[in-house]
Amino acid sequence: MTQWIAPERSEHGPTNVRPKRARPMRGDDHWIHDYWYEAPRDDPAVAEVYTYTDAMSYAPGEEVCFHSSTTAATWSLDVYRDGLHPAPVHAAHDLPGAFTATPARAYAVGCGWPVRHRWRLPADMRSGFYRVVSTCRRVDGSRVMQHHFFVVRPTEATRSSKLLMLLPTATWMAYNDWAGANHYQGIDGADGNLACPRLHAQRPWARGLVWLPEGAPRVMAEVPPEPGEGPFYPNKEWAHANGFCMYYNSAGWAQFDRHFLQWAEREGYALDMITQTDLHYRPGILDDYGTVVIVGHDEYWSWEMREGLEAFTERGGKVARFGANYLWQIRMEDEGNIQVCHKFRAPTEDPVRGTDASRRMTTLWEAPQVGWPGAGTVGVNGVEGLYASWGGFTPRGQRGFTVYRPEHWVFEATGLYYGDIFGAPARIFGYEVDGLDYNFRDGLPYPTGHDGAATDIAILAMAPAVLAEGAHHGDGS
């Protein structure tokens, strides 16, 4: 009988695998400037295993190729469909171990590891998120575990819902710094201290983006600081103490989308699923659905993704977006294996700058070279309201939404009144959010349209956010 590794089991294992070491700490040390990232040891004396797949999504009946490298003699692979009740779908145990070194700049060029296992998906396989669990054993008997994923996209024959969940995988990619860099920080550049504008999908996901243990802190602190106290970042402290990536709770399935799917299944809602790469290359998938659902941290989009979603709504489709932080244009290359985003360096580094393709420059949608405000597609955007409820960003903000139009059908049977704040105990408003330019008339907010938002948008509820962190000038600064 195949032994299945239950996801509820802890993956932490021994916390002191490597020998202890000491280093000096300077008075101006800070986690932002003491960047850490996940990479394999490539040491045959220490058992490890890493796996990635040859694509991010597959249709039923296609073959999944698992590219792996391990320093263990044998390793195991388990796949299960994630959700409210994770279900095992495939297992391959006691696979022969084989090690392949990780190339320099794997974050930009991919790992290039050989295929170590293949699996043909069943022709009737349900659409969904499939978590890949690779494990091996160390000489002391402790288990090493690593997570990857792939998505099975729906077909006409396997479609099971009128709701299509669009995973914001471009944002996940932007935060994945496995092997040394993402779109935010890294070891790229001549001095080895820059973010990388070109990220490759053919590599593992950093620890924490696919799976998290219960109790992993969110960005928004459970207890806000008292007035006069300096800002603190319990999520970064926890990540460093437990060996998770610096950005584990900034994006990814484990922090946002998985919780929504579990709630939806608990309430009886079925959801088919695709990635943003599917939207970029296969926008016709949307035509089989009445509503597209987007959840969580939704920051990066390509021009083609926007066109695909807008064409869907122009044909009568609906979009239910329970996410935020619509900000950056990306470009996709090599069938989605490469994601390009130069961000603030785009005006001096992006190859399309100053050309006929300058509108595809990978920077803010609101940048004059691009001129397509995000509010034109989703009604709001990141430049009109960005950070809230963590660190020094409105650290004692309300963390919920103030209701301004309780008569709207969205609030039917909720019992909410004008001025009520909902969601604060659950901290639903925080981290990176969206906004729009507005003014008040007779106690009600109205969009001005100055930021590209339609002036007939009804602002139902909102909360304050800021574009920069407030400075702390007290003790401990």
Notes on the protein architecture:
This protein has about 475 residues and is α+β, with helices and mostly antiparallel strands. Helices cover about 15% and strands about 25% of the residues. The protein is built from eight helices and 23 strands. A five-stranded mixed beta sheet has the order 2-8-7-4-5, with no helix packed on it. Strands 11-9-12-14 form a four-stranded parallel beta sheet. The protein is globular.
Which radius of gyration do the C-alpha atoms yield?
23 Å
Number of strands: 23
Arithmetic mean pLDDT: 93
**Biggest beta sheet attributes:** 5 strands, mixed
Our count of helices gives 8
Shape: globular
Percent helix: 10-25%
| Beta-strand percentage range | 15-25%
How far is the first residue's CA from the last residue's CA? 58 Å
Q: By helix and strand content, what is the structural category? A: alpha+beta
Q: Within the largest sheet, what's the order of strands?
A: 2-8-7-4-5
- Give start-end ranges of low-pLDDT stretches: 1-11
Name the features.
477 residues; single chain; 24% strand; 4-stranded parallel sheet
Can you lay out the helices and strands and say which pair or pack?
Blueprint (H helix, E strand, L loop, with lengths): L48 E5 L3 E2 L4 E8 L3 E8 L5 E10 L9 H4 L5 E6 L7 E10 L5 E10 L10 E5 L1 H7 L22 E3 L33 H9 L10 H14 L5 E4 H6 L9 E7 L2 E3 H12 L3 E7 L3 E6 L4 E3 L5 H4 L25 H4 L8 E2 L12 E3 L17 E2 L8 E2 L5 E4 L2 E4 L13 E2 L15
Parallel strand pairs: 2-8, 9-11, 9-12, 12-14, 13-15
Antiparallel strand pairs: 1-3, 3-6, 4-5, 4-7, 7-8, 10-16, 15-16, 17-20, 18-19, 18-23, 21-22
